[in-house]
Amino acid sequence: MKMEYPIHMRISNRHVHLTEEVYHKLFKxxxxxxxxxxxxxxxxxxxxxxxxTGDKEINNVRxxxxxxxxxxxxxxxxxxxxxxxxxxxRRSGDLDDSLEITLKTDLGEVTTKGLILANRHVHMTPKDxxxxxxxxxxxxxxxxxxEKSGIMDAEVKVSDNGYFExxxxxxxxxxxxxxxxxxxxxxxK
Length: 189
What we know:
The protein is mostly beta strands. The chain has four helices and 14 strands.
């Protein structure tokens, strides 16, 4: 039996997660909050940097806090093409075979692995997962309404700070004409 539930769809632009060590090589000031994200304890910071490969670069890439135990740089396929790279699609934190990229600020440069295309995912708390009868890493479908309607798959991401919503990148949003915070339908089979 198929179950359907409304779900907010959030668009995630390119951003970076940094370790304390790398952060302090690139910034003098402490990481400061620009805006809270729905995932409890996470925030968009005021700090931005440049990501680059060779002579190609993208400026004003936002640092997301808090600082982590690993460096992760999330971009879209369009960004990857403009940088001339082909990073793997990965779940957040799964950095196997991730690519190397250079991070740059006025203070300096750091080259690190961690460049990925983030997989589409539905954030949930353990209580949400129980309610929807899914578990971490399960695949679900999202029905997209509108002029360019369709179905996309997404991975369930269960965490204590999870806030029930779908995260997609700008390429997915543009392909389906999705605006940030539009409502789609979560399909559980």
